[in-house]
Design brief:
mainly alpha, 0% strand, disordered C terminus
Length: 280
């Protein structure tokens, strides 16, 4: 039993490494992405400064915490595929052309295979496109970045869980291609929803009352809002304070990851039983 499990772990590790190397080959695109993230970071930073000058403490963040939220968001943007750039379009195209049959014949789980590849992509994007804008933002503005190594470790755990939630949502989009002729429409709708409900535009804590509680309970919050609040720890307006608050935040992410991955397996089972290849 141990050998097959070790073999599967090695297989998915190789798939993840392949995903990392694949995106590492696009040096020009990575440099352009770093430049774009940094420029938009400065634009958003001055917008945040003006907004927090008018509304100090908005959403429970002071100005330095709000700027930290924004720059960390820029660092996670590509890794979480918040505005596209993930695997789902390739997956949908493989369904449309019939190439998905090759994936189904592999001696590997379909969901785990694509998850491993997407985590490899995300790891490169986090290092290749995320670190430089955050460093530049930290040099140009006063950020509330923690100094405790444990806080950064908890942040990375939260980022990993957020990436799994992001994958699980996008995997459902990919599976929708078994029933839809074209995934462009649903992909566009999903991007709009992700931008709004993840906290990419503004922290979700700025939304008042019941609506604010509602959006913070959705899975998109686990992709961006929660990781940044875990990094800020006792600071910020996300309520992630102390060990209990951090554990609750990580538990929230883990719960959504399990639910969405489980839903993906159910939809995958229905899709592969159907085995209707659109256009094939």
């Amino acid at each position: 039993m141990r050998q097959p499990m070790a073999g599967r772990a090695g297989l998915y590790g190789a798939v993840a490494a392949g995903g990392f190397r694949r995106y590492a080959t696009y040096g020009t695109a990575t440099a352009a992405g770093v430049f774009t993230n940094t420029v938009f970071g400065f634009i958003l930073a001055y917008t945040y400064i003006a907004l927090w000058d008018e509304r100090p403490g908005l959403g429970g963040y002071d100005q330095s915490e709000a700027l930290t939220f924004m720059w960390v968001s820029q660092a996670l943007l590509a890794a979480g595929a918040l505005i596209g750039g993930g695997f789902q379009e390739e997956f949908q195209e493989r369904v449309r052309t019939g190439d998905i049959a090759v994936d189904l014949y592999r001696p590997a789980d379909l969901q785990a295979w694509w998850l491993a590849g997407d985590l490899g992509r995300a790891a490169f994007q986090l290092l290749g496109r995320g670190v430089v804008p955050l460093v530049i933002g930290g040099l140009a503005f006063q950020l509330a970045l923690p100094t405790a190594p444990l806080r950064w470790l908890l942040f990375m755990v939260s980022v990993f869980l957020g990436l799994v939630v992001s994958f699980a949502l996008r995997y459902l989009l990919g599976l929708a291609a078994f029933w839809l002729m074209d995934g462009a429409g649903i992909n566009l709708m999903a991007t709009v929803v992700t931008v709004f409900f993840s906290g990419m535009l503004l922290p979700l804590t700025v939304f008042p009352g019941g609506f604010g509680e509602f959006v913070r309970a959705l899975p998109w919050a686990a992709m961006l809002q929660v990781p940044v609040d875990v990094l800020l720890g006792g600071g910020g307006g996300g309520g992630v304070e102390g060990a209990a608050g951090t554990a609750g935040a990580l538990g929230f992410q883990a719960a959504w990851a399990v639910v969405l991955l489980g839903l993906g397996r159910l939809v995958q089972s229905a899709a592969t039983r159907k085995v209707v290849v659109q256009g094939g």
